[in-house]
Amino acid sequence: MGKLKAFLQRKDIIFSGKRYGIDALGAMAQGLFCTLLVGTILNTIGQQFGIDFLNKVIVTLKSGDNTITYTVGGLASAMVGPGIAVAIGFALHCPPLVLFSLIPVGFAANAMGGAGGPLAVYFVAIVASECGKLVSKETKIDILVTPIVSILVGILLASLIAAPIGKAASAVGTAVNWATEQQPLLMGILVSVIIGIALTLPISSAAICAALGLTGLAGGAAVAGCCAHMIGFAVMSFKENRWGGLVAQGIGTSMLQMPNLVKNPRCWIPPVLASAITGPLATCLFKLQMNGAPVSSGMGTCGLVGQIGVYTGWVNDVASGAKDAITAFDWVGLVLICFVLPAILSWAFCQVLRKWGWIKEGDLCLNL
Questions:
Q1: 92-108 pLDDT, tens per residue?
Q2: Which residue blocks in the chain are alpha helix, DSSP H?
Q3: What is the pTM of this model?
Q4: What is the pLDDT of residues 159-188, one digit of tens each?
Q5: DSSP state, 290?
Q6: Are 269 and 349 in contact (CB under 8 A)?
Q7: What pLDDT score does 345 carry?
């Protein structure tokens, strides 16, 4: 037993909640941000401002009769699996050969996981990283053994667990789908809270919304929930993270807070409560609908994709005759639901929890 402990210590393999629940999750959020979210932002900027370079197809792949094209943003988004896997490997202090081997492992796990791809990559990358570290530099042909072991373990595990994880993530989508069939008040609360939580968790809220085709009032509630978490965390943690944190969370991702939420789940209460309020306001009062691309329903304020999706939906509705015009009331509702109310409500709830001692100084600090 002593020899095994010494061996694991030499390999820097530490079985702890901090290593896997905080360090790995934090790295995962950064990997997601640098690929999927940045790619989405670049695509949105290119489309809305007509920037040729960002809209230009730079890579074309052919497979039989199918042709897949990628823009700059599209390529960045397509690398979400490898990005997350390498980020996790870096957080786990993987040797170079193990770290680089996680690129195909992350791609495979994300592809097999479907809507739960990022979550599948999280589990698979941890196991592949640790197994690769076990054999690293233990043989004279390390340059062959280490990558082969890391890749085979990772892809084999992905083939076993990625799809079930994807189905589990889709179960969240089923709950959302059920909520959309209810009356606006209940639907607004459930959809807003569930999608908002999914946005912050290591699963793809955008992929869930896209898979379900979440548009209309349900899409509007999803936007409200995502904004409540992104703007909420950005504002309530401003004291700790200042402007960098405000931007990273407000137009990036609230998933950056996952390590802090593992340490203190009570930090989640303010944005969840805010989403429970803004969701039904969106569906019942402002009739906020997402009639743009369904994926935008799960993006919140990331690159303002959610708001641009609502706006493009308005434009399409006006063009088709489904809507007479874009009114001042539409704009007021969009600004209140997406920015003003999430900021005010989350900050107010957070102040109460700080006074109660449920949220303490530094609990929301990000390692940016």
A1: 999 999 999 999 999 99
A2: 2-10, 17, 24-32, 38-49, 52-55, 72-78, 80-91, 96-113, 117-135, 142-180, 184-200, 205-212, 216-236, 238-250, 258-263, 269-280, 305-320, 328-335, 341-356
A3: 0.75
A4: 999 999 888 877 776 776 677 667 789 889
A5: B
A6: yes
A7: 97
Structure tokens at 72: 């700059």
pLDDT given for residue 88 in this prediction: 94
What's the pLDDT score for residue 173?
Answer: 66
SS (H, E, C) 86-138: HHHHHHCCCCHHHHHHHHHHHHHHHHHHHHHHHHHHHHHHHHHHHHHHHHCCC
Contact 50, 175 (CB under 8 A): no
Chain centroid, CA 273 distance in Å? 20
SS3 299: coil
**3-state SS assignment for residue 29:** helix
Q: Can you give the residue ranges of every domain in the chain?
A: 2-168, 182-356
The contacts of residue 17 (CB under 8 Å, 6+ apart) are 262
Measured N-to-C along each axis, helices 184-200 and 205-212 cross at an angle, to the nearest 10 degrees, of 140
| 66-92 pLDDT, tens digit each | 888 999 999 998 998 999 999 999 999
Question: How far, rounded to the nearest angstrom, does the alpha carbon of residue 368 sit from its chain's CA centroid?
Answer: 17
pLDDT at site 342: 96
Q: Between 37 and 60, where is the model more confident?
A: 60
- Indicate the helix (H) or strand (E) that contains 50: none
Q: How many whole angstroms separate alpha carbon 184 and alpha carbon 188?
A: 6
